[in-house]
Fold this sequence. Notes:
Chain A is mainly α and 135 residues long.
Amino acid sequence: MIFKNYFLIILPIFFILISSFDSNSVEPGEIIKNKSLELRARKISKNIRCMVCQNQSIDESNAELAKDLRILIRKKILENNSDKEIYKFLTDRFGDFILLKPAFKLNTLMLWLFPFLFLGLGLFFLIYQNKKSKK
Amino acid sequence: MQKKILLIPLIAFLLISLIFFYLLIIERNPNNIPSAILNKNVPIFLAETLIRKEKFNSSAEFGAELVLVNFFATWCKPCADEHSNITRFKEEKNIKIVGINYKDKPEKTIKWLKKLGNPYSVIAIDKKGSISIDWGVYGLPETFVVSSQGVIMFRHVGPVTDEIYKKISLIIDSEKKNDF
């Protein structure tokens, strides 16, 4: 029985630990020697969706297209393109869908604001109920 | 009054459930990703042609007539499946078809075309996949309709099935009428 309880605690911790490992598919040949530039490339890659696997970033994906895009991003960085220019290059071709973090735009307004709206509503009812029960 | 206010979360919840339910039952394919390059000019690119080994200049190939662009590879099974329908475009619609051969071995492609037939007016080699990135291609095969003004009018990701053939044929017919 005690063993079972321990197991129930350890198992989720184990899964949280393995899921938090930084798994990436960047191959040694792709890496830029300059560390800060490489970090920039990694940061952008983590926000670019792999269009083939769709729920992975190109940083994590082994797909051919993901690899091509990782190389392309590094090439653009070495050509002195800004992050903004690189994002624009990619969204011009693949659309906003390629961004894992959706842009804050008119058509994504609901997506961004709804959680806050519901949080506000929830808080309002919580306080309202509280006050009522105190009476 | 107080009780009425308490109904608001319930109504909000029901509304959201209704929206979800609606999205669930309407016919939509979540794999259909809105295309960013529709209604834009064709990307400008240079390449080598497959058979004659000549220079392929996109500016010279597009903008004069209606063109069908087909991204394909010999290693892609659905490309072989749709090939008969691509050939139908040539035979039944008499439209110029530009093939873009994605990351393939030229000699293998030539063999493949000899076996299945060559409906393409010209084939550009996309050795490193850079042309495909410029077109926003992410899954072979992909087919585009480019207007006589050089604007991308239609895009289809995946093989051209009989149903898609009909759809593209309608676009070609209406566009040809407009051009006259």
